[in-house]
Design brief:
By secondary structure, the protein is α/β, with parallel strands linked by helices. The chain has 2 domains: 258 residues, Aldehyde Dehydrogenase, Chain A, domain 1 (3-Layer(aba) Sandwich); 183 residues, Aldehyde Dehydrogenase, Chain A, domain 2 (3-Layer(aba) Sandwich), CATH 3.40.309. Helix content is 39%, strand content 20%. It contains 15 helices and 20 strands. The strands form 5 sheets. It has a 7-stranded mixed β-sheet, sandwiched between helices. Strands 9-8-7-10-11-19 form a 6-stranded mixed β-sheet, with helices on both faces. A 3-stranded antiparallel β-sheet has the order 5-6-20. It is globular, with a radius of gyration of 24 Å. The structure holds NADP nicotinamide-adenine-dinucleotide phosphate (NAP) and magnesium ion.
Amino acid sequence: MHQFIDGQFQTGASGRKLDIINPATGESVETVTLAGRADVDQAVAAARAAFPSWAAATPGERSTVLSRFARLLAEQAEDYAVAESRQTGKPLRLVREFDIPGTIDNADFFAGAARNLEGKATAEYSPDHTSSIRREAIGVIGSISPWNYPLQMAAWKILPAIAAGNTIVLKPAQITPLTSLMFARTLQEAGLPDGVVNIIVGDGSEAGAALMRHPGVDMVSFTGSTTVGRTVLEAAAINSKRVHLELGGKAPFVVFDDADIEAAAHGAVAGSLINTGQDCTAATRAIVHRSIHDTFVARVAELYRDIRVGLPDDEDTDIGPLASYAHRDRVAAMVDRARNYATIVTGGSTPGDLLAPGAFYTPTLITGAAPDSEIVRDEVFGPVLAVLPFDSDDEAIALANDTPYGLAASAWTRDVYRSLRATRDIKAGCVWVNDHIPIISEMPHGGVKESGFGKDMSTYSFDEYTQVKHVMFDITGTAHKDWHRTIYKLR
Ligand code: NAP
Ligand code: MG
């Protein structure tokens, strides 16, 4: 029973079964029955029915549920860690130290933020009227999340939406639905009314597309590929839904000649290999000054070779498998094509022995690829870093911006002027200086260009999940108001 609708678990109406596979071993973790159109309709109806009273709950009441949820999540952390690791192949260390604490912090943040929704000052912008702004919930949110960070994505989608008084139907990626279901269950334990959060486990092109097109949905929020993102945009046009899209990235990692090379090398390793490179902000294109290019490449290669690719339960494991065999094969095929036009400095292989049954791939460093080659332009979403040389600062910025994406970027320099220019000139939703990856609940995450639009996390997410209403009061109490004479004169 893997559909969570109106506070109840039920079996998917499609009748089609799917095994959730642990990509570290190939073993089935659980079998789910996928949602059909009827589940989507039912979930949207439940969310619609739950909306008026949840929207009318006080900020304090909503905050209380989120605070309780954060505490319950902390108590249940180990169950979540195991489920998340099993369905994605993530190392337990990563889940315990990154995914879970990040999610708890998000919940705590939105518990506080729920009580701090603000609007413009109530004031007299005309002498005869008092204006005020109401910041109101939008209604039913239809959300679709990807498989790279299932738990954190459930948090990013659900928490700001419900903190602001909306109700939601979330469709997680079908290969990783388990922690989204747990999330909804824990929210229920925390006192969330039935129907406020509903989880549909189904295929993207069926249940996902039906949710995006549904006339009972007021806003769609999607994280995933650019290709599907475009279909979401089209579906939203049907009833003019509000849209929030997070469509991945191809983050540049710019290393100027005055940078601390050791810091940049470590930053590149962590920034490119986090979550086995399945991170939309991951460092994918190291753009390195020609004078330090070879030193940088040699150091990253050395660190890459020391990375322990291993089983998720092993404390010594640095990176686990990719999230699925299909995805591992896609990554391997891209690297194989790159062999024809670039140099694979290290990696580019699937480990054998104990790891042979899993969807593993070794950290892969690539040099000599042209700026317009596939490996430099397209999202690989795996443990792969391409290094490109540059000669001038202008060229570095041009290379950094030579991508349809604009989600995240970093600049490595000890020169304050360079860092200021780089952070101004690189087109991205986030630019780090002398680091790459850290995210915090208080700050927005979201892209520009074909990385999409709209912000996750932070109070900026409320700009997505609320709408402002102008309320204007006449304060003269007169029947024939001054401005009426423009229309008709009192005779
Ligand atoms: P995807 O197809 O865009 O999947 C993301 C989500 O969209 C999943 O929940 C998927 O459902 C759903 N979906 C698929 N087709 C849909 C449709 N027609 N209408 C509505 N929803 C639909 O991404 P993918 O195929 O898993 O991965 C492909 C590439 O996307 C990756 O290699 C990576 O480059 C990029 N990606 C980016 C992010 C990111 O964080 N921005 C995350 C994941 C992937 P089902 O999977 O259940 O069918
Ligand atoms: Mg897909």
